[in-house]
Amino acid sequence: MNYLPLLAAVPLCILSSFGALAQGTLLKQWASGVVTRSSEYGADTWGAKQVLGEPNTMTYGDNGTAWASATRNGLTQSITVSFTEPVYASAVLVRETFGNGFVTKIFAVDTKGGLHQVWAGKDKTQPGYTVNFIATFPKTSYLVKAVKVVIDPNHDQAAYEEIDAIQLHGTK
After folding, report:
1. Gap between the Cα atoms of 160 and 41, Å rounded
2. What's the pLDDT tens digit per position in 75-85?
3. pLDDT for res 23
4. Spatial separation of the C-alpha atoms in residues 110 and 93, rounded to whole Å
5. CB atoms < 10 A from the CB of 34, how many?
6. How many CA atoms lie within 13 A of 156 on its CB side?
7. Helix H or strand E segment including 4
8. How far apart are CA 86 and CA 13, in angstroms?
9. Domains plus CATH for the chain?
């Protein structure tokens, strides 16, 4: 049977909705668990758990409601966080609240635990205000359950590099 005449009568907005469902709806989710971290300044304030959930650090500066590494400068640092729903990922948002411009690499962790570099480059965010750094990349061909964010703690010698929240963008 030829369905073309029937489809011609369907409003374009409805057809667009079917296309969105077929491709998957974009899901944006905040980190729900800490997998690992290279270090943390404290177990509570400035601890890795501070990156979980929605942003709660609204002012730029040294705030205990954001994660900071144990030392202000030194070796490369990282934090790996998990998400409730594995998705085919296309972006990661890192909310920077102090020492901005420090993200150097982002890795996706697939459902089998495999690590895949999805972004590397220059984080061009500027200090002085809280900012959402968004790293975009081609949609992964595998489901992503966690991300690892790598930072340069020497980016700003006079500040700790601090992260308030991490969000994963993708489709189911």
Report:
1. 10
2. 999 999 999 99
3. 59
4. 18
5. 19
6. 21
7. helix 4-8
8. 29
9. 25-171 (2.60.120.260)
DSSP string, 69-112: -SSSSSS-EEEEEEEEEEEEEEEEEEEEEES-S-EEEEEEEETT
Q: What is the pLDDT of residues 140-154, one digit of tens each?
A: 999 999 999 999 999
Q: Are 50 and 66 in contact (CB under 8 A)?
A: yes
Q: Is 155 exposed, middle or buried (0-12, 13-18, 19+ CB in 10 A)?
A: middle
Return the biggest CA–CA distance within the chain.
71
pTM (two decimals): 0.86
Provide mean pLDDT across the span 17-25: 52
Q: What does the block give as tokens for 119?
A: 């972004």
90-106 CB burial, b ≥16 within 10 A, e <16: bbbbbbbbbbbbbbbbb
Instruction: Using the structure block, give the residue that is written with the tokens 């969105």.
Output: 20
Q: Which two tokens stand for residue 3?
A: 């369905």
